[in-house]
Amino acid sequence: MLLIISGHFVRHRGEKMRILVVEDEKKVASFIKKGLEEEYYAVDVAYDGETGLYMAEVNEYDLIVLDLMIPKIDGLEVLKRIRSKKNNVPILVLTAKDTVEDIVKGLDSGCDDYLTKPFIFMVFLARIRALLRREKIEKEPLLKIADLTLSPVTHKVARRGKEIELTSKEYALLEYFMRNPDKVLTRTMIAEHVWDYHFDSMTNVVDVYVNYLRRKIDKDFEPKLIHTLRGVGYILSADRQVMRRE
What we know:
The chain is an alpha/beta fold. Helices cover 38% and strands 18% of the residues.
């Protein structure tokens, strides 16, 4: 899981990588959130340590970006409490505290990497990718269902060898489906993992994006892979029995 107390990334259990950013400077948090979302990560933001700690306990994240100088509960204490719960989520400390003593204290308290402000965003992204790679070593490099393939590394999607262009949200939705083949996914589950923490699951945007995805991966191909289970949700499957249940 990945958590950012000052930034975020994508996850290894069949869904988009989800990052928690704990950062009290709203402009900085907004900048990080926007940049990470452009890189296909789902991002939640907390503006103080108390909220960040709560979110880290009730949600599963693939990475945490953590500022140390945050209100209510300071970042170092948040870090210690997360580790005390035997939570091994990768944590990247992102802070203005740049003395050798601060860096040593942060690493000794359980963070996986330490980056000081001001920072270069490309370096920040590289650090996140490196931390997430450690978590993904055991993963298959290519997801495959029937003749549909998706590469989590290159973000390339193809069916029957023909490359399919997807938007970032369509890609995130398909990756979630492909990491959960033959499993019924409710609209709420999809909303929580493809959109962010504050997503309004009462809207019909999930259905809209499923239809977008169907047009691209199913319209001109057989067998159809995305199926609707009325009143329940959706399922990605090449199983003929599932097709008959629609």
